[in-house]
Every structure is written in C-alpha cells, then in structure tokens.
Amino acid sequence: MIAKLVKNPNAAKVDELLARLSEMGVKGQLIQGGAAMVIAIIGDTTKVDQDFLHAQDIIEDVTRIQEPYKLACRKIHPTDTVVTVGGTAKIGGDNFAMSAGPCSVESREQLCTIAESVKASGATVLRGGAFKPRTSPYAFQGMRDAGIDLLVEAKRQTGLPIVTEIMDISQLPLFDEVDMIQVGARNMQNFELLKELGRLRRPILLKRGLCATLDELLMSAEYIMAGGNTQVVLCERGIRTFETATRNTLDLSCVPVLKQRTHLPVIIDPSHATGKSAYVAPLALAAAAIGADGLIIEVHNNPACAVCDGPQSLTPAAFDPLAGQIRAILPSAYRY
Amino acid sequence: MIAKLVKNPNAAKVDELLARLSEMGVKGQLIQGGAAMVIAIIGDTTKVDQDFLHAQDIIEDVTRIQEPYKLACRKIHPTDTVVTVGGTAKIGGDNFAMSAGPCSVESREQLCTIAESVKASGATVLRGGAFKPRTSPYAFQGMRDAGIDLLVEAKRQTGLPIVTEIMDISQLPLFDEVDMIQVGARNMQNFELLKELGRLRRPILLKRGLCATLDELLMSAEYIMAGGNTQVVLCERGIRTFETATRNTLDLSCVPVLKQRTHLPVIIDPSHATGKSAYVAPLALAAAAIGADGLIIEVHNNPACAVCDGPQSLTPAAFDPLAGQIRAILPSAYRY
Amino acid sequence: MIAKLVKNPNAAKVDELLARLSEMGVKGQLIQGGAAMVIAIIGDTTKVDQDFLHAQDIIEDVTRIQEPYKLACRKIHPTDTVVTVGGTAKIGGDNFAMSAGPCSVESREQLCTIAESVKASGATVLRGGAFKPRTSPYAFQGMRDAGIDLLVEAKRQTGLPIVTEIMDISQLPLFDEVDMIQVGARNMQNFELLKELGRLRRPILLKRGLCATLDELLMSAEYIMAGGNTQVVLCERGIRTFETATRNTLDLSCVPVLKQRTHLPVIIDPSHATGKSAYVAPLALAAAAIGADGLIIEVHNNPACAVCDGPQSLTPAAFDPLAGQIRAILPSAYRY
Amino acid sequence: MIAKLVKNPNAAKVDELLARLSEMGVKGQLIQGGAAMVIAIIGDTTKVDQDFLHAQDIIEDVTRIQEPYKLACRKIHPTDTVVTVGGTAKIGGDNFAMSAGPCSVESREQLCTIAESVKASGATVLRGGAFKPRTSPYAFQGMRDAGIDLLVEAKRQTGLPIVTEIMDISQLPLFDEVDMIQVGARNMQNFELLKELGRLRRPILLKRGLCATLDELLMSAEYIMAGGNTQVVLCERGIRTFETATRNTLDLSCVPVLKQRTHLPVIIDPSHATGKSAYVAPLALAAAAIGADGLIIEVHNNPACAVCDGPQSLTPAAFDPLAGQIRAILPSAYRY
After folding, report:
1. CB pairs below 8 Å between B and D: how many?
2. Which residues does C113 contact at the CB level (< 8 Å), separation at least 6?
3. pLDDT for C39-84, tens place per residue?
4. For B175, which of A107, A185, C120, D171 is 20 to 30 Å away at the CA?
5. Secondary structure (3-state) at D66
6. pLDDT band at residue C304, thresholds of 50, 70 and 90?
7. Reduced to 3 states, what is the DSSP secondary structure of residue A188?
8. To the nearest whole angstrom, how far is the Cα of D28 from the nearest Cα of chain C?
C-alpha cells in the first residue's frame, strides 16, 4: 500500500502515523520522491483500512498494491476451480457448461417441452426463473414457489440439474433441491444474502452487477467464500453504458481479465446482455472463442407469447444449430 | 405507446397483433409514415408489456409515451408530498430537512456527542449506520442490533428523529423505533425488500442506485407506494461514471428533473457522492441553491479515527458554519 | 417522428404547429392516447429538426422513428459494401482483412522488420502511426512527415498497402500515397476533417469515439459519404466505462448491431481497447467468431523498448500463431 | 511513481530496469512488501513514460504519484489565474463572468437584439456560434465567416467582448477580432488545434469532452499552456452517462476538484449540459453557489424558431431575473 502525503506534511503527525501502522503489525517506510513524499506500507495490508488512511489530513491519496481478495485470488490459489452442478455438469478447468431454458417458468408443459428440447441440443444445465426481479411492480413477478416445484419436476424428468434465482434470504428453504443458486445482478452486493449463501455447500452462480467493476465482483465472491462455500461461478451479463442499441454492453474482455485474477469459472449470459435474440448467437460464439467456461442462454418455445423477456429468447429451432456451432469453436479438449 | 414495424411486415401478423391489443383493452392505430409504418397504441398502456411487443417479429422498436409509474407521477398527483419524520421533521413542499450524524454508530459516547452537536447546529434528523454494507467481507460490518439500540437512546436524549439503513427483511423487527428507514443504493432494486416496506406506514428514505436512471428510481418508489406506503423520500448520492476524482458523480440535475416528474421530496447526500470531506460543503450549498428538499451529511467528532468513511466526514466544527450558510442560501419561505 | 404533447396543450398552438409541419412537406397527424396526446409526423422526416420540435412549449418529448442516416443505412442500401485498400486488400462482404504493424513508426529498420514479419504471418494491410495523438504535450508526438515517408517505403518493399492516422486537414497533402486514411477516436466528430475526407475517393478507416453511440458513429460515416466518398470502414476500439481492468471496454456487440444497421464493413482493434498485450489474442479470436470483417493489431519487434503503447503490442512471435488461429475460426468462405 | 513487480520477477531484469531508470535521471528504490515487491521511482518522473514501464514483463502495474501537468498545477502555481477578456471581463480570482447569447448567430437583427438585452441584464461577455459542430451533415452548419462578422459588429455596438467556437486550424485567420476562442467538447483532444492556439496570446475557453476525466481536461489545458498561452478558462458542460432525462450529466463537483488541482478559472455551461431550458436556471444557481468563476448561458429572443438548440435557450425575459438571482447568491466580494 502506498500513501502519498500532502505537501509539507506535519512531521509530528507523520511520526504518529508510522507508530500507528506499527501497532497494526505493518511497517511504514518513508520515501522522499522528487515532488512528493510517500509512505510505503509493508506487510499484510489486508488488515489496513484504506479509509483510515484517507481520513488522515497528512495523506493526499492511497494506492492499494495487494489484491483485497484472498480466497478468490489466483496468485494464492493458482489451480482452476471446477464446480460440479447436480453431480453431472462440470464448469471450469477444461469443462464447458451450457445452461439453457426459459426466462420465466410459466407452466409444466412449457418448461418440460423446453427442457427436453435443450437437453437434446446438448444443454447440461436447465435454467428457469421462478422469482423474477422486475422493474415495475405491475409486471409479472414469477410463479414463485410453484415455479420452483415445476423446475424440480423438470429436473426429475430430464435428469438435467437446475439453476434458478433467489431474491431474498427468506426464500432459501424453497431452494433445497435447486442444484445451483443464482444471485442476480441487482443482488450482487446484497451482502446479507451473500453471507447466508456462504453457509451452504452448493454451487452459487454470481452475476456481475450492472455497474460493478470486476474487482467488486470478486469481492462479492469473496463474501460467499469467506463463509466456507468455495463453489462460486462468476457470470458476466452486460454492464450499463451510454450505448442504447443493446440493453447493456457485454464486456467480453472480462474473461481474460478474470482468468488472470481468479481461479473461479466464468460464464457468459448473452441473452440478458443484449436483450435481443438476433444478437445472442454471435455473442455466444464470441464467448466460446474467448475462452469462457460456459454460457447461459434463454430458450423459449414461443417467444412471441413469453410472459417475460421474449425479445431475447431463442426458439429451440434456433438454439440447436447454435449449440453445434459453439461446440465446433471450442478448443477440442474442452468440448462438452 | 408507439410500435415501429419492420420493413414490409407480414399483413396477417399485423392484423393478429391489432386483435390481440384490442383484447388487452387498448386500441392499435396503424400509421403509414414516409419510410416506416408504426402502430400507435391508445388507452391505458400500463397494462401492455413492452417486452410482449418487442418479442413480435413484425416489430422493430417500441417507445413508451406514458410514464410507467402512476402513484409517484406528478401529472396524476400534482401536489407536493410532505413527509413527516418522527412527528417533528418535515421534508418536501416548503420544508427543508437537515439530516446529520456519523457514518457508523461506534459507541454511546460517540453517538451522543455528535447528536447533541448536530442538533445545536440545526440538524432536524439524526443519521447513523448500524448495519453497514461494505465491499469487503473483512471490513467492519456495523454494530448491528446494538447500534440500533444506541440510535434509539440518542433519539430519546436529543429528541431528534432517527434514520438508519436496513439491509434485509429479517432485520425489520429491530426497526420498530426507527423513524425513517433507509434503503441503500445497493438495495434500490431489492424488490422483495421494497414490497415489505410498502406494508409499513412509516417514511422510507430511498437512495438512488449507482447506475440507476431517474425513472428506475421512481419505479422503485412505485414498488413501495403500490403497497400503500406513500411516505417515500428520494435521495441522490452520486452515480458511477468514468471520472475518478470523486468516488461517484453527484447528479444535481436530478432535482429539477424529479421535481417535474414526481411529487415526492428529493434530498441530496454529498458525503457519499464525493467521498472527500473537502468537497462536501460546496456541493451541499449547490444542493440548497438548486432546490433540494434536504441534505444528509456525515459528521464525526474525530474523522481520523472513524471506523468507516472517515475521509468524507465533517467535524462538528466544520458542520456548524456550513449549516448556517445553507440556511442563508435557501429561499426564505423554506428556511428550516 | 412522434411528438408527445404536454398535458392540456394550447389548441391554437397545436394548429399552428400542424400548419408549420405542412409547410415543411410532412404531415402531422394528431392522435389522442389514453393519458397523452401525440402528433405522428409522416413523410421524409430527415428534413425535420428534432430541436425545432423540442423547442415548442406544447411538446414534451420527441421520438425519431426513421434512421437519421441514409447513405450508410442498410435498409436503403441492402448490399454489403466491399472496400478495397491499395488494390489488394478487400474488407467487407466475404472478405476479412488483417491489419498489423507498430503503434508508432520509429525507424526504417524497425518498420521494415515488422512489416516483413507481419506479411509473412498473413497480414494484408500494414499499420503504423506517424502523427500520434498523445494525452500529454510532453510525450513523443510521432515522427510526422518522416514517418509517412518510411511507411511509403515499407509499402514499396513489401507490397502491403498502408493505413495511418491523420490528425488535421493541413496534413492531407502528405497522405497522397497512403492507401487508407485513419480518423482516430478523438477526431470521430471533427466534422471539418470528415467533410474534407468526403472529397477524396480513397478508403477511410473511421474509429468510434470513446463515448460515441453506434448511431453517432454512423452519422460521422454519413458526413464522409455525403461528400461522395463511400469507402468507409468502421472500427470499434473500446468505449469508456467505469471498469478499470482494461483501458477501455471493447463493445463486441457492435458487430451484429452495425451489420444490421449498415452495409459498411466493421473491423475491431483489440490492442487499443484493452491496452494490455495479454488480452489481445482472446479478444481477436472473439472478434473473428462474432463476424467482424477484419482486425487491426499492434505488433512490435521489441515492445519493452517501443516509444509508445508497448504494453499492448504483440511480438511477431506471438502474432504469427494468433493469425493462424484467427484463420481457423473464420467461416470458410471468409478465410483470407 | 510506483511500479509493482510480478510475482517472482527475474532478478537480472530488475537490475537492468534499475540501471535504465538511473540513465533517465531518476532513482529506482526496491521495496519488498508483504506479498508484492515494488519499485519506488524518485525524482522528476514527468520524464518517465508510464507506457515504457507497463511494457516491461517484470512489471504488473504502475501508479503515478506526481501530477502529469505542471503549468496548470496549483501546487506549483498557487495563485489564482485571472483571465481578462477583451479588456473588460475578468474571470477567476474574485471575478465572476457571465457569458450569454444565442447558440447560433442567425442574423444581424437577432444577434443585436439579444446582445443588447443580455448586456442590460448584466452579461459581461457575448457568446454566439458561427461554426457549429452538428451530429448530422444535413443539419444547419452555422453562418461561418458571415457569423463571425456579425459577432464583431455586435461587439462594436454593445461593447461586450465576444466568445465563439473554432472548429479547425484553417479558420484561425477569421478569429482576429474574437476576444476569447472556444474549443468545443468534441475538440478537447484535437491536439494539433490546441498546439496552434498555444501560440496565440489570447484567452481560450476550453470545454471538457463528453467523456474526459478532469485530469485529461487539465492535460489539454497544459497543451495550450506549453505553447506559452497561459490564459485558459476551463468549462464543464456535462459528461455522458447512462441517464437520459438530461442530454448530459452536469458534473458540478468538478468545481471544488479543479479549484484544488489548478489555478485556472472554471466556468459552467448549464444550457448544453441539460439540453432543456427548464433545468438551466436551477443548475445556474447551483453553479454560482458552488463557487464557479462564471456561467455561459444560451439566450434566444424566440427559442421556438431558433435554428439550433432552441430547447435549451432561455428568453431574455427569463434570463433577466435569473441574472439577478445569481448575483444575489454569489459571495459578496465576487458579485459582478
């Protein structure tokens, strides 16, 4: 950690700060630069609160050198984490996972039709929303409990493990048979929920918030991991920018960046990122080419009648050839 | 609502869509423009899901003309809402409210010292964090239950009503004596929490999310109001941009925009927006000049030792003259 | 074009506006919606200034339905434009172009070594900067005239056509032997320069501005095309967001969006977008998979000693296998 | 400057780098932290190119401690710069300047009417656009040369100094009688133009780019100052964010930030920032309260018929009381 001092800092305050750092178990080393004086703080600086330094009036600026996350950090844990969902679908390392399914669970028939179809096309995980975060209180809020029941039924019928979103701690008892629990973009920093999920020993699919940096995403993963649950899958689903042609801007460069910083698997959601089905296939292919560990794609048997997010859903007839193209683009060791 | 059709749309599908709109209780009127054909949808379009339209392959684009919120909409409810906090502090209409206090509650002594001091300077509401949303799981998470107890004690001692943040529905029973419940920026779209708060009949301070548009903020207010709780105070606390000189970018233009769109009061939090105490006073004055209904400012008796957000806290000695300057700048009818 | 009227608009002013529209050669059709009244403006609305409508006090909001660009619009010109650079390199349609070379031209030896090497790896265009836009006035500003001379020499030696950036109209006489003239991101809306380039009949490589929308990029292309120069190649090089892990955020979804909106070719610059060589290869592969018409990649024989942008440059040894991988990922008809 | 080394860096390369730094006239001091090793670079680091360091494979990250600008830096030049426009209007220090006038010069009558009117209301500088940067090539591009002539005429008639925008170096000969030359947001990083303006000895009004950081704005000012022209006035006119309620987001916090970092005056343009006349007055008052050194406001005698930017123009009747309110809010020493 590097703390830049103000011009002509009070010498007594500098000494006091150095003594204070020493008490914290780290060492402050004073360095006189050309135009500025800095204190290099040496030792395990995760114990040092950046805010504490910023609040000292002799300090102008603070730069963290060490990563603020440990359990998620590749430098400390160099081996790729492989997450296994429901005993069958592996994500990470050399394993590519394909999740597919409707945005919302609407009915037994709808869900089972889609589940059978995406399984036949090669999907390894079934997705489907039971609790739906909607911008408007007047919009369909999901089938809720009944939706979870239908997902569990579809899982029994097809053998596909299931992933679905939790929106509040109080819903957790309903998720006993859910193989991977999704934390949506809007809850990426719902820290109470993250801590609760850290107590589980089940895979968590953690979506990046709409305006979260990659380091913040890793800190949210760290919240879950700090509780002992190390099965975290990261998911990029588009960030908010000034561009309006797509709903959000898919930040595919997150894949090489995250691969460098963490050992956790990274998957891509092109459906929510773009909001338009015509853009899903090209972005899915790009995600496969860039080295993502998986995809999560919305598929609906009748997008024009979907209760939610129809515009971004592929038909089974469009998903099937896409799944083949994706397999063809993956490095051979990696094909699922 | 205006739906733009694709070039050469299938005529049968257009007829089908018009029939479908009719079933929904709205009327679709076909208009042939110069290069494009549009359908103008007439009637109460809050019932029409934009997604449903987007998912039709004959539709290229959809524009909503009517506001998607009703209870929060000034066109429908032209009179300013005045929210009363704890029987004494009014916000909105001609009433300006000054909230002040520490970022985190740290101890009885700290809180009471600050509370007495800000009261003497003219604050009308005491703020203080008991549950703290922190990016790192290793950072101080707040005094939690014990912090709420101290706030209630400070309220009894000073007579100032209190505002503090809730982070999860399960904490609600602890908030019985809290006069105004704050929803933090990260929970602005925690819809389950919003619905729960809609069942209360107590003021809610709703902070704008870091990348939320003003219409999304109003939709979150609508979630609370749809439950019957109309005492919502909106708060701007900075949005995320590419600029790094301040923690976030305070969007002061939100005040005239929101005043036009809604009857709800709007207050400004310059402390979180900038993250640096040196910038708090100028932005607080600007907020008063632009017509905000109140301010929420962090004050700490010893910022250099604060457990959290010390860098953005004013000392009581700095807050006192600022409070005076703010009063001087307010329109006279409005001075608190 | 749809103009939404304010609540209870002055009837005389509405009539006046309808008459005024009629004079402009378009027709205004009044539609009474549920809660709002709109005027649908029918005819060739490219003549109608959106600002003019916004400035009328009876109008609350205006939505353009028709695209504001014509020459660049795929609806009007459905066939892919194929741009030929220097008689040999084709971009667009089924043609993929690979541009490569150093960020800055530094010396005859440096440039020729790199040029021969990238040619051997399959590059079809040589890039190199002679005029360099640098944030700091104290940084190396490029070899300027002498740099252009060296590029022309390298072109003669290798047969590769050249692309290099122009920064001001006054430099144009120096560009006589430059096969494709680049307009950098910072000049995307240097309208006087665009108009001047519109008078040429040579390919222009137009880079997207750091905070330009895709429609603004197309409007800048329209500026060039309006002058009669239709050989415009669009280039995405990253947009500015709040993320700091990469220099900018590469918006790969621009490829399917632009392909839908325009017939002009679209190429990707992963070097400037990320600013880090480690991320160039994965993003280049993603760009090939998503259907871009080409790539522009920085290659330097000794990145550690480059005068500019060394951190994002690949060595020839890294570029060569990448070029092979890119060819393998391209649709077969498209392989260059 | 602090360079963070990769894990287990090659020792020979570290020695080589230290030697190289020594040749550059700075000293590299190796510091072993807890988990990372850094090199503190001491001396005049403006000579050290950050890119050079980033390009070394033993370096993971680089942090600049010293400001990259010198002439614009308040630490080096603590006294406020006061810019005098046309011999009469002072900006900076205790001097507040009020610029007002039409977006575009349209005719002699229009300009003179507005000029007389804003002068009567207390404006100290007349603004007006002759060369207009327009997104569309089909939009009105300004009266150009003839517009400059009319501005000069209005200056003679009213005695008000004039400010108008330059769009290209080739237009410079037309600007001989222009008192302050404006560089628009889109040209903030038109470095060739900035260098040319650095050769003049006349005030330059430098607008912040739509996605420029404040440090980039200061670097552009440094370009002008490096040529010897120290009369630079900075202008904030809104940055681009995801919010759509206003055209751009006015970043008023720039005022205290810039006041801390530079001695140059800072003025605010609320008209372009919001794009809507209803928001201009509140933001102008906020700008006065926050300590800006001036305002630039669009005034048009008939906004509904303005050829450009009518929606954001105030009428003279609206500007007059606003000017009074602004004067009332300014610190007394500062009232103009």
Report:
1. 110
2. C301
3. 989 888 877 888 888 888 899 989 888 888 999 999 999 999 999 9
4. A185
5. coil
6. confident
7. coil
8. 17
C109: how many CB neighbours lie within 10 A of its CB? 10
CA distance C128 to B151: 65
Q: Which of C239, C279, C290 sits opposite A256 (nearest CB)?
A: C279
Q: Is the pLDDT of residue C278 over 80?
A: yes
pLDDT > 70 in chain A, percent: 99
Cα–Cα distance, D320 to C89 (Å, whole number) = 61
Work out the minimum CA distance from A40 to partner chain D, whole angstroms.
8
- Counting other chains too, the contacts that A254-257 makes at CB distance below 8 Å and 24 or more residues apart are A254/A208, A254/A214, A254/C245, A255/A287, A255/A290, A255/A291, A255/A292, A255/C282, A256/A290, A256/A291, A256/C278, A256/C279, A256/C282, A256/C283, A257/A214, A257/C245, A257/C246, A257/C279
Amino acid sitting at position D194: L
Dihedral, CA atoms, C294, C295, C296, C301, nearest 10 degrees?
A: -130
Subunit contact D40:A31, Cβ cutoff 8 A:
yes
Report the sign of the C-alpha dihedral through residues C294, C300, C301, C302, in that order: negative
What pLDDT digit, counting tens, does each position of A115-173 carry?
A: 999 999 999 999 999 999 999 998 889 999 999 999 999 999 999 999 999 999 999 99
**β-bridge partners, C62:** C3
Rounded distance, CA B112 to CA A164, Å?
A: 46
Q: Which amino acid is at C152?
A: V
Q: Looking at chain D, how many residues does it have?
A: 336
CB D304 to CB C55 under 8 A? yes
- Identify from B2, B21, B210 which residue to disrupt to test chain C contact, counting C C-beta atoms within 10 A and taking the largest count: B2
Side by side, the strands of the sheet bearing A27-32 are A27-32, A37-42, A2-5, A59-63
Cβ–Cβ under 8 Å, residues D163 and D102: no
Which residue of chain A comes nearest to C278, CA vs CA? Answer: A256
Q: What's the CA gap between B26 and B48, in Å, rounded?
A: 8
Q: Distance between CA atoms of C29 and C21, rounded to whole angstroms?
A: 10
Which among B262, B267, B279 has a CA at the least distance from the CA of B313?
Answer: B279
Neighbour-count burial of C274, counting CB atoms closer than 10 A to its CB (0-12 exposed, 13-18 middle, 19+ buried):
buried
The answer to whether D90 and D82 have CB atoms below 8 angstroms apart is: yes
Which H or E element spans position D32?
strand D27-32
Nearest to A36 among D32, D34, D65 (CB): D65
Q: By CB neighbour count within 10 A (0-12 exposed, 13-18 middle, 19+ buried), where does A78 fall? A: exposed
* Whole-prediction pTM: 0.96
Nearest to D310 among C55, C138, C186 (CB): C55
Q: Which helix (H) or strand (E) holds C294?
A: strand C294-298
Which residues in chain D have Cβ-Cβ distances shorter than 8 Å to A1? 33
Residue type (1 letter), B329? I
The H or E element spanning position B315 is none
Angle CA(A36)–CA(A40)–CA(A46) in degrees, nearest 5?
A: 135
Chain A closest CA to D10's CA: distance in Å? 17
Interface residues of A toward D, Cβ cutoff 8 Å, are 1-2, 4, 7, 26, 29, 31-36, 38, 40-45, 61, 63, 65-66, 75, 240-242
Instruction: Give tens-digit pLDDT for A263-288.
Output: 999 999 999 999 999 999 999 999 99
Q: Which domains does chain D have, with CATH numbers?
A: 2-63 (3.30.70.1140), 83-334 (3.20.20.70)
| Rounded CA separation C210/B242 (Å) | 11
> Which structure tokens are listed for B183?
């929803």
Q: Which residues of B fall below an 8 Å CB-CB distance to D?
A: 211, 213-215, 239, 241-246, 249-257, 260-261, 273-274, 278-279, 282-283, 285-291, 329
